[in-house]
Amino acid sequence: MDTTEDSLRKALAEKQSAVEGQGNAVRALKAAKVAKAEIDAAIGTLNALKLEKSAIEQQLQAAVSGNGPDSSVNREAFRQAVVNTLERRLFYIPSFKIYRGVAGLYDYGPPGCAVKSNVLAFWRQHFVLEESMLEVDCPCVTPEVVLKASGHVDKFTDLMVKDEKTGTCYRADHLLKDFCNEKLQKDLSITAEKAAELKHVLAVLDDLPTEELGAKIKEYGIVAPDTKNPLSDPYPFNLMFQTSIGPSGLLPGYMRPETAQGIFVNFKDLYYYNGNKLPFAAAQIGQAFTNEISPRQGLLRVREFTLAEIEHFVDPEDKSHPKYPEVADLEFLMFPRDKQMSGQSAKRIRLGEAVSKGIVNNETLGYFIGRVYLFLTCLGIDKERLRFRQHLANEMAHYAADCWDAEIECSYGWIECVGIADRSAYDLRAHSEKSGVPLVAHEKFSEPIEMEKLVIAPVKRELGLAFKGNQKMVVEALEAMNEKEAMEMKASLETKGEVEFYVCTLEKNVCIKKNMVTISKEKKKEYQRVFTPSVIEPSFGIGRIIYCLFEHSFYMRPSKAGDEQLNVFRFPPVVAPIKCTVFPLVQNQQYEEALQLANDMQGQMNWVPFAITVDSTSSVTIRERDSKDQIRVNVEEAASVVKSVTDGQRTWDDVWSKFPHHSSGSTED
Amino acid sequence: MDTTEDSLRKALAEKQSAVEGQGNAVRALKAAKVAKAEIDAAIGTLNALKLEKSAIEQQLQAAVSGNGPDSSVNREAFRQAVVNTLERRLFYIPSFKIYRGVAGLYDYGPPGCAVKSNVLAFWRQHFVLEESMLEVDCPCVTPEVVLKASGHVDKFTDLMVKDEKTGTCYRADHLLKDFCNEKLQKDLSITAEKAAELKHVLAVLDDLPTEELGAKIKEYGIVAPDTKNPLSDPYPFNLMFQTSIGPSGLLPGYMRPETAQGIFVNFKDLYYYNGNKLPFAAAQIGQAFTNEISPRQGLLRVREFTLAEIEHFVDPEDKSHPKYPEVADLEFLMFPRDKQMSGQSAKRIRLGEAVSKGIVNNETLGYFIGRVYLFLTCLGIDKERLRFRQHLANEMAHYAADCWDAEIECSYGWIECVGIADRSAYDLRAHSEKSGVPLVAHEKFSEPIEMEKLVIAPVKRELGLAFKGNQKMVVEALEAMNEKEAMEMKASLETKGEVEFYVCTLEKNVCIKKNMVTISKEKKKEYQRVFTPSVIEPSFGIGRIIYCLFEHSFYMRPSKAGDEQLNVFRFPPVVAPIKCTVFPLVQNQQYEEALQLANDMQGQMNWVPFAITVDSTSSVTIRERDSKDQIRVNVEEAASVVKSVTDGQRTWDDVWSKFPHHSSGSTED
C-alpha cells in the first residue's frame, strides 16, 4: 500500500476525532454557559482543526486520484484527444453507427484500414517470411467438438450478474472493481484498514471463485448501477458467439474465440508438409470473436478482433533455437514473477541473461520474446512503455511451462497486447484424445523395439461398390476411428455382420458390412520414438497493438500561425497509411487546383512521413516529417528513394548523407 | 434442344418399336409352328434390329454424357487430378479434418494461403490503390436491423425439403436438378418430348416458385436420395448463420452474408471523408458466410469465404467515368442478354462498342467490367475461358439497372466469380428509411432555383386530443403522403371538412378533420440538389477466382526420366506462392545437404516461376520456369532482378534482352 496515502488516511482519521472532540467541548462550554470569550476561543480552536482536516482531505484526494502528468484525469484527457482525432479522421468508426451502433464493434475507416494492412504485412514479413513459417487460413465457423476439446465450451466464461428486476446483465468483477475504485477515490472517510482491504480485493479480483465474488457483492451492498435494483448471484456466461451449422439444427458451432485451434487440428498435415521434421512453426492471421458481457475500454475490449498467432512446435526434450544468439543481446524492460511478488517494478534485463538464469524457461521462448520486442519497436511502440511481464503461478494454466505478456503502457494502463506462452503438449494432446487421431512427432530409434498396434484396413473395392462416389469419405471416416470405436465396430461386425456408422462429412449413417473393413491388433516392431511436441505460442492482438501505436505516435503541436493545435500521428514509414504526398509548386495553371487541394489537406495530412515538393521540372525536394530535413533529388529518382525508405531498405539518415540538402523556409510546416 | 440428341432419341424410339414388332412376329411364327428356317430367319432379323438399336443407344449415350475432351467424364477426371494435387500439396485442407470435417468448410494450407495473400495484395494494388478507393474493415457480426433493411432477413433463402422420416435436409432445386440430369443421361428410353420437358425444367429451375417446385417434385415422384423416404413440401430456409449479441439474448445478430452492407451504413462518413464529392468508391475485403443447406461443388460452394467488394457511388444523372477511355479498346468475350435469349454463344466484343450501343448500361459499369477483365487476366485466368455474361431480366433484382457476371470456365462449367451490378439507389434508400438517417449527396446550384414544394403540417395539438397515444403514428402517416395523396386529402377536407384516412401502422382508418392538418404548396428557393447516389458494385468471390486460377494454371508433363507424370501449376509470378528457389551447385561441403534437399523438393517445387543456380562465386544463373530460358547475372544483382519481375515492374522478356544468356543442359528440368 502507498505509504503517503496510508499515513494521510491515519492523519485524517485522527484529525476527524480531534474535530469531534473539540465540537463536544464547545457544546459543553455552551451548556455550562461559560464566558463568551472562553467559548469564542474554543470555537477558534475548532475552526482551526477543521481547516487542518480540510487540508489533509485535499492532500488525500490528490494522492488517490493523482495530479501529476500521469494522473487518471490527465490520462483521460489525453485519451479523449487521441480518440477524437481518430474518429474525426475516420481511423475508426463505431460499427452500424446510423443504427446507434453495437457496443464493442468498430470499423476501421480508410486510414485505419491502411495502418492495419501495413501492420499485418509487416507481421507477415517479420514472422512468416523471415522464419519460413507455414501460414494457414481456417474458417471462423467452428464445430462444437473442436472447442469442446480445447476447453472453450466449458471454461471460456466470465461471471455475470443480472439486475433482478430488469434482467440487465453486468460483469460481476467489473461491478466489484468499480465499487472498490470509487470507494478508494471518493470516500475519504474510510479507514486505512478498509482501504487496504479494498486494494487487496482489487489485486485478487481475477482469481476470486464464484462464491467469494458473490459474497463480496452482497457484503458491500452493491446494486445494479442503473436502477439500484438488487443483483442476482454471479454465474458463468460463455463468451463464444454460438450458431448452428447446416439446416438441421443438430450441429452446434461457434465463432472461433482464437485462431490457434485451426492450426492444432492441422498439425498432422503440417508436420508432413515440413518433411516430418521438428521444430517448425505455423501461423495464422484472422478474425476472432468474444461475446463480451458489457464491453468497456473502448477500442481495447471489443467483440470481434484480428488475431495473429504462431504455434511453434518443438521437441519437449530440446527447446534450443538456432537463431537465439541473434536476439540474446537485446536488453529491455522485463518484469519477472519474483519482482512482481516482492512489489518491485520492471527492470532492464539482457534477454540472454534472463534465459541463462532460468527466468525465461527456455531458448525458444526467449527467442520469440526477442522477436516480439523487435516487431513492436519497429512498428513504433515506445521502448520505455513496453515491458514483458511474466505470468504469476495463479495466472497460468496448469499445463503451461512459462508465459510472458508483452504489455504496452497507454492511457488505460499497462495493456496485454501479445501473449508468449510455452503451452507444453496440452493442445495437441487434447485434440488427439478427442479426435482419436494421434497428433505426434517421430524420432527414429537407433535400433527397433516391439509394440502392439491398431490396424484399420478398409476394403476399398467393396466400399466402392456400396458407396460409389462417397467411398472416399467412408474410407476416411473408418480410418479416423480411435481404438475404442474400432474395437467396438470389430465386435459388432463379428457378432451381427454389419453395423450403422455415422459419417460426418456425409452428415448421415451408412451401413458397414463385415467384408468392407478389417480391424486388428498387430504386434509390430517400433523403429522410432513417438511423442507429442510442445508448442510455444506467441499470440498477437492486432487491434490492441494498433491502438497503443496510435497513442504512442500521437502528439500535439501548434500550427505555424500558432493559432491552433495540430494533432499529429508520428507514424514510422512502415505503418503510415499514406507514405508520401506530392505538392506541385511549379507555376502552371493545371497545378493550381492541386496546390489548393494540397494546402487544404495539409491539416489532414500531417501524419504522412514524406512530402515531395515539385518546384522545378528536373528535380524535386523530399522532406521528412519529424526532422523537417529536406533533400534535393532528380525527378526520376524521387519515387524509388521514397520507396526504399518506406519499405525499410534504407534509413532517412542514409538518404540524408547521400543527397544534397535543401533549405527553404517557404514550404515548411 | 441438341438436334443430334433429339434425332437419336426419335431413331431409338422407332428402332425400339421395330424390335418389339419383330419380337411379336417371332412369337407369332413360333406359335404358328412354322418351319424352323423361317423362324430362324425372323430371329436373325430381330437380332439385327437389336444390334442396330444398341448402336443407336451407344451414340445417344455418347451424345448425352459427352465423349470429347470437354465431356463430363474427362472434366471430372481433370478436376480429380487438380484437386488431388491441391490437397496433397496442402493448398487446401478440409477444415477440422481430424474430426471428419464439416461439409463446405476448407482451410488454405501454406501454399494456398500464400496464393490467397498474393491475390488479395494484387487486388488491393489494382483497385484500392490505383483508384484511390476508401478501404474499410467492418465486423462480421451484424445486428439484425441492418440485414432486415438490406432484405437478407426476409429474402436470403433457399428452398429446402426434408426427409419425412429422418429429417435430413436437402435443397429442393438440387434434387429436381439431379433427377432431370440423371433421367436425361441414363434413361435412354425417354421420348424426345420428355427430354425437352426435362431440359426446360433445368433451364427455369432457378426461377420456379415454391409451389411449382413442390409440384414438380411430387409429379416426378422424387424421394429422399439416401432413404427413398417421401419428402416434405419445399419451404424457405434462411441461409445466414444466426447468433445473439451480448448476454441478454435480446439482440439477434447474423454473420454477414456479404461485406457490402458495412460500406452502405458508413456512406455518410465516407462521403464527408471524400470532401462531400461524388463519385468515389469504397472497398472492403473480408469474410462472409452462407449456411448452405447441403454444400456441393467442393471448393466452389462453401459456407465461409473471402469477398472483396467495391461500392462505387455515382450521381445517377452522370455515370460517365474519367478513366473509361483507358479500357474502351479492350476486346473480350461478352454474352449479352439478347445473345442468350436467341440461343447464340458469347462473342468477342470491343468494350467501347458494347457501351456505345447501350448493351452495357453506362460508362462506369463498362469501366469496371474492363478493370475486372484486366485483373483476372493479369492473375493468370485464361482469356478464352473468361466471359462477361449479362443477367437476364428475370435474374436481376427489380431495382438493378444492369448486371454482368464475370464467369470463368472450369471443370464445373461456367462459374460466376465476379458480379458487376448497377444497383441504382436501392441500398442507400433502404438504410435511409430504416435508420432515419438520410444517406444522400448534394450538388450546389450555380444560382438558386425556385421550386414548388409540398408542405404537410399536422396540427399536433388537435391530433393529440383526437388520437391520444396513437398521435405519433397518425402524424407520421400524414407526413408520409405523396403529392397526389396529399392534394386529394386537401380537396376532400375543403369540400367535406373531414376524410377517412388509412394508417398502416395502426392497421385501420381514422377520421381526419380540417383543423388537424394544413396542406399547401409553397414556393421555395433551392440552393442545391439533394439526391441518393447510385451504386455500381463489383463483388469478387476470391475463393472461386483462386480455384479457377488453379485449374487454369494446371498442366501435366512427363518427368525428365519420362517415368512419371509431373503435375505443374504454371502460376504467373504475381500469384506464385514461392517466387524463386536457389540451388547451390558450388562444390562445397556445406552446400551438399542443401543440394540434396533442393533435388528432393524439385517435384514439389515445379510451380515456382524462377530458379537461381549458384554455380560460381561471382555470378549465378536465373531460369524461367515456362520457357526454361536462363540468364547470367552478378550475385549482387540477382535478388533485385527476380524481385523486379515478380513485382511486375519488368517482364521476363525485358530481362532476357538485357542480360547474357546461359545455356546448359546439365541443370535443366
UniProtKB/TrEMBL annotation, chains A, B:
Domain Aminoacyl-transfer RNA synthetases class-II family profile: 80-558
Catalytic reactions of this protein: tRNA(Gly) + glycine + ATP = glycyl-tRNA(Gly) + AMP + diphosphate
Keyword tags: Aminoacyl-tRNA synthetase, ATP-binding, Cytoplasm, Ligase, Nucleotide-binding, Protein biosynthesis, Transferase
GO biological process: mitochondrial glycyl-tRNA aminoacylation
PROSITE patterns for the chain: AA_TRNA_LIGASE_II, WHEP_TRS_2
Cell location: Cytoplasm
Superkingdom of this protein's organism: Eukaryota
Primary location class: cytoplasm
One Gene Ontology term of the molecular function aspect: transferase activity
Residue stretches making up the WHEP-TRS domain: 11-67
Enzyme class: ligase
Statement: the UniProt record of this protein carries the keyword Lipid biosynthesis: no
EC number: 6.1.1.14
GO cellular component term of the entry, any: mitochondrion
Subunit structure: Homodimer.
Similarity field: Belongs to the class-II aminoacyl-tRNA synthetase family.
Name of the protein described by the UniProt record: glycine--tRNA ligase
Organism in which the protein naturally occurs: Hevea brasiliensis (Para rubber tree)
Biological classification of the source: Eukaryota, Viridiplantae, Streptophyta, Embryophyta, Tracheophyta
